Amino acid sequence: MIMARLRHPAAQRLHGKLIGQPGFRRLWFGQTVSAFGSQITTLALPLTAVLVLHASTFQVGLLTTAGFAPFLLMGLPAGVWVDRVRRRPVMIAADVTRTLVLASIPVAFGLGVLTLGQLYLVAFICGVATVFFDVAYLSLVPGLVGREHVVEANAKLQASASVAEVSGPTAAGFLIGLLSAPVAFLADAASFAASALSLLIIRDREPATEHAQRRHLRAEMAEGLRFVVTQPILRMTTGCSATANLFVSAVLAISVVFLVRQVHVGAGTIGILMSLGAVGGLVGALSCGVLRRWIGSARLIWLSLVGTSPFALLIPVTFPGAGLTCFAVGLIAISFGATVYTVLQASFRQLLCPHRLLGRMNATIRFITWATIPLGGLLGGALGSWLGNRVALWACAIGICLAPIWLLASPLRRMRDTESIPAESDLAPGVATS
Q1: Which residues in 215-245 are b (16+ Cβ under 10 Å) and which e?
Q2: Residue 142: its pLDDT value, please?
Q3: For residue 417, with 0-12 CB atoms within 10 Å meaning exposed, 13-18 middle and 19 or more buried, which class applies?
Q4: In the prediction, which pLDDT does 282 show?
Q5: Percent of residues, the chain, with pLDDT higher than 70
Q6: pTM for this one?
Q7: Quick one: pLDDT at residue 12?
Q8: Under DSSP, is residue 355 helix (H, G, I), strand (E, B) or coil?
Q9: DSSP states of 68-123 as a string?
Q10: In this structure, which CATH number among 3.40.50.720, 3.40.190.10, 1.20.1250.20, 3.30.450.20 belongs to the domain 9-154+165-206?
Q11: Beta carbons of 59 and 116 less than 8 angstroms apart
Q12: Are 380 and 252 in contact (CB under 8 A)?
């Protein structure tokens, strides 16, 4: 049973657009606020470690590991637990948890008892909360907005994230300079509190979970994994996403060192170049609806990467001066294509999957595709040390170009649109939907 899209169906007909749905407006507001707040923590966490606690490079790196570890340790079980309960309470609990643990940093700093151990613990607990929030969030959207608005909803939410990535770091830097890094965490804590409040006032009801269907944790995890593996399109898009994440992460791991040592640019210029990539993502999110109507959603899933991935080859061509344009164009194109692809393939899988399996399906795909991100960082560092930064960038750019082969080998090439997929259908062999 799909969750009711609006408490008052007449209001939906009157507005006729997603923006007229109060439930989505509240979700969108909360996610936009928390996206900007997260930019503060992204900058404040390493700065607190370095400037206040005098952490080494290795110790700062461990903060990233602590924050990412929950995705690998708890990704699959989180999908099972999310499918057993209503999704919105899980999201609210995750937001409240992140509010409290982030607020603990300025409190400890004010009392003079802040330690690196606390930063690691905060990063890990926030990572756990984010795992549960993200899986529940991806599973909530289809029922909240209705099948006909899934792509539009994902595009709007992605646009907010892209705007935060463009302007958030500058605002975060100003706030940290004004308040100091530890105190700035209060702003991110407040943003998660705002997100929790926006979820609390959503009136749409979720369907009750089916307790009789609960089985052993391992069996339920296997059911979600089987659904992904036995679906040709899901299997191929997951392989594509994992491959792309591997090589894009490798490129990003090398890029800063390459720009400093081979291209001889400063931190300010590097920041501008990275922000331009986020601009490409914003344009992709805003143009997703128009492109989908012109080209077709199924075609656009593979065309978005096939058409933009070759621009990655511009990145290793970068040279000082005017040659910085190569890096900027390459990053903008990759971000544009990745955003369009992400919005459409996420929407496709939300439409394809039975409601009761959404949590496990999303958790399985997130587990597989995000597992390659830390591996990409290691790959980039190893190739850079072995081959030199420019040659390593060539190798990784070629890897990005090869990622869409997964999509070209999938049934997507024979389809125009994905929206015609029937709701709550059992399209995966061996998976019961009763």
Answers
A1: eeeeebbbbbbbbbeebebbebbbbbbbbbb
A2: 77
A3: middle
A4: 84
A5: 86
A6: 0.71
A7: 39
A8: helix
A9: HHHHHHHHHHHHHHHHHS-HHHHHHHHHHHHHHHHHHHHHHHHHT---HHHHHHHH
A10: 1.20.1250.20
A11: yes
A12: yes
> Binning pLDDT at 50, 70 and 90, where does residue 1 land?
very low
Q: What tokens appear for 64 in the block?
A: 């990233």
Token pair of 68 as six digits: 């990412």
Q: Judge contact between 380 and 253, C-beta under 8 A.
A: yes
Structure tokens given for 394: 């060539």
The reply to whether 9-154+165-206 and 223-414 are identical in fold is yes
Mean pLDDT of 162-184: 76
- Output the CA torsion sign for 232, 238, 159, 308: negative
pLDDT for the residue 432:
33
Count Cβ atoms below 10 Å from residue 267 Cβ, excluding itself.
10
Place of tokens 């926030």: 126
C-alpha distances (whole Å) from 375 to each of 10, 225, 235 are 50, 21, 20
Query: pLDDT tens digit string along 187-244?
Result: 889 999 999 999 998 876 665 555 445 567 777 778 878 888 888 889 999 999 999 9
Look at residue 344 and tell me whether its pLDDT is greater than 80.
yes
Number of other residues whose CB lies within 10 A of the CB of residue 418 = 24
What pLDDT, on a 0 to 100 scale, did the predictor assign at position 212? 44
Name the residue type at position 282.
Answer: L
Give dist(CA 343, CA 156) in Å, integer. Answer: 9
Of 164, 395, 349, nearest to 241 by C-alpha is 349
Closest to 359 measured CA to CA, from 146, 93, 202, 132: 132
Provide the mean pLDDT of the chain. 80
Q: Which two tokens stand for residue 161?
A: 């994230």
CB 339 within 8 A of CB 413: no
Q: Which amino acid would we find at residue 84?
A: R
Provide, rounded to the nearest whole percent, the portion of the chain with pLDDT above 90.
27
Question: Where along the chain do its domains lie?
Answer: 9-154+165-206, 223-414
Fold of 223-414: Growth Hormone; Chain: A; (1.20.1250)
Overall residue count recorded for the chain in this entry: 434
